[in-house]
């Protein structure tokens, strides 16, 4: 049985606690990387992470890109949408096709 | 590309021919795999894009509601309300095999059977904005889980496509031409050897005949007579 976690600044994620997801309020990149690692080893299948935080620990996230679990999914925080999530999808397309044919450069 | 040394022997030739046949078959199979993966990937990535847009819009709206809720009541009250969630979400992860890529399939379960039982607080001390906010977030949760599944599948498939594409290219542009070159080299070398043996035999035959019948001497005598 796997669980679902949310990492990010407190204001962005406290609502998810009501839904039954495990929330971990973290703002420091070093701490976030540590938390991410421990969650990934600890039976979490999906880890949502706020875009602002995800941008600071990108190398750490990329390590789990090729692994089957966990799925690390950036979500927008209260500070707004940075476009990082959609950029990630774009990155997949570029990796597979060689050039971006879905978003047509915008 | 005959710079790699090959033994020009018949055994090596048969080996190379067999290798070429296998390589060609492997190339065809991998190419088919790549094409099918690509088709499925493009389908999936379109779904992924749509889902992401939906989820991002949903979360943005929910965040707006939460900001409203926090504005309407003291911070401590919000913290207390969220402190002990009644609901818990579990995931069961199955696997689906798409062209040899194992992609995860999530089915989510809640601890309390009634999925609508999301309010972890009494309604007496909280504003109705908080109810709205929690509700809007709960609505988006199934889509979020689906997004997680979809996005992970996309990442896994993208990695597999890249790998397959490299293999196809390596076979097409390096291994197959090299093997063909080597086969050609061996065939030519063997032909050349055969010709030289034949010539040698003809020469030896001439010499033996000469020794037995002395044609040249007789010819010389004939002229003399």
Mean pLDDT of chain B: 86
The total beta strand count of chain A reads 4
* Portion in strands of chain A: 15-25%
Summarize the helix and strand pattern of chain B as letters. Answer: HHEEHH
What is the second-level CATH architecture of the domain at 29-162 in chain B?
Orthogonal Bundle
> What gap, in angstroms, lies between the N and C termini of chain A?
39 Å
The CATH topology of chain A corresponds to Rossmann fold
Shape of chain B: rod-shaped
Q: Share of helix among residues of chain A?
A: 40-55%
N-to-C CA distance of chain B: 64 Å
Which secondary-structure class do the elements of chain B indicate? Answer: mainly alpha
CATH topology of the domain at 29-162 in chain B: Helix Hairpins
Uncertain parts of chain B: none
Percent of residues of chain B in helical segments? over 70%
CATH superfamily membership of chain A, which one? Answer: ATPase, V1 complex, subunit F
> Which CATH class of chain A?
Alpha Beta
Percentage of β-strand residues of chain B: 5-15%
What does this structure look like?
Chain A has 106 residues and is of the alpha/beta class. Chain A has one domain (3-80): 3-Layer(aba) Sandwich (Rossmann fold), CATH 3.40.50.10580. In chain A, 44% of the residues lie in helices and 22% in strands. Chain A contains five helices and four strands; from the N terminus they run E-H-E-H-E-H-H-E-H. A four-stranded parallel β-sheet of chain A has the order 2-1-3-4, with helices on both faces. The longest helix of chain A is centred in the last third of the chain and has 14 residues, at 84-97. Chain A is globular. Chain A starts with a strand and ends in a 9-residue tail after the last helix. The model of chain A has no long low-confidence stretch (mean pLDDT 84). Chain B is mainly alpha-helical and 225 residues long. Chain B has a domain at 29-162: Helix Hairpins (Orthogonal Bundle), CATH 1.10.287. Chain B is built from four helices and two strands. Chain B has helices spanning 10-72, 75-83, 128-213, 215-224; strands at residues 89-98, 101-110. A two-stranded antiparallel sheet of chain B has the order 1-2. The model of chain B has no long low-confidence stretch (mean pLDDT 86). The chains are: A alpha/beta (106), B mainly alpha (225). At the A-B interface, strand 1, helix 1, strand 3, strand 4 and helix 5 of A face helix 1, helix 2, strand 1, strand 2 and helix 3 of B.
């Amino acid at each position: 049985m796997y669980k679902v976690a949310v990492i990010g600044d407190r204001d962005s994620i406290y609502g998810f606690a009501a839904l039954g997801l495990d929330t971990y309020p973290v703002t420091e990149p070093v701490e976030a990387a540590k938390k991410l690692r421990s969650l990934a080893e600890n039976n979490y299948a999906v880890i949502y992470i706020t875009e602002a935080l995800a941008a600071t620990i990108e190398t750490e996230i990329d390590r789990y890109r090729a692994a089957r679990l966990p799925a690390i999914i950036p979500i927008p925080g209260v500070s707004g949408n940075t476009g990082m999530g959609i950029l990630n999808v774009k990155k997949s397309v570029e990796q597979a096709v060689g050039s971006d044919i879905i978003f047509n450069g915008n | 590309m005959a710079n790699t040394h090959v033994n020009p022997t018949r055994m090596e030739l048969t080996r190379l021919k067999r290798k070429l046949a296998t390589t060609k078959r492997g190339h065809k199979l991998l190419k088919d795999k790549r094409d099918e993966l690509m088709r499925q990937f493009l389908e999936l990535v379109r779904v992924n894009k749509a889902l992401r847009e939906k989820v991002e819009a949903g979360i943005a709206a929910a965040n707006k509601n939460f900001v409203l809720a926090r504005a309407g009541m003291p911070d401590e009250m919000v913290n207390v309300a969220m402190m002990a969630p009644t609901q818990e979400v579990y995931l069961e992860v199955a696997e689906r095999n798409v062209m040899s890529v194992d992609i995860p399939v999530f089915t989510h379960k809640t601890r309390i059977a009634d999925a609508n039982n999301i309010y972890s607080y009494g309604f007496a001390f909280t504003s109705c904005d908080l109810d709205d906010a929690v509700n809007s977030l709960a609505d988006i949760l199934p889509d979020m889980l689906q997004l997680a599944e979809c996005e992970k599948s996309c990442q896994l498939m993208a990695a597999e496509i890249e790998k397959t594409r490299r293999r196809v290219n390596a076979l097409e542009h390096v291994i197959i031409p090299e093997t063909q070159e080597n086969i050609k080299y061996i065939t030519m070398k063997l032909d050349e050897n055969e010709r030289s043996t034949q010539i040698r035999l003809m020469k030896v035959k001439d010499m033996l005949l000469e020794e037995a019948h002395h044609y040249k001497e007789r010819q010389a005598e004939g002229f003399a007579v």
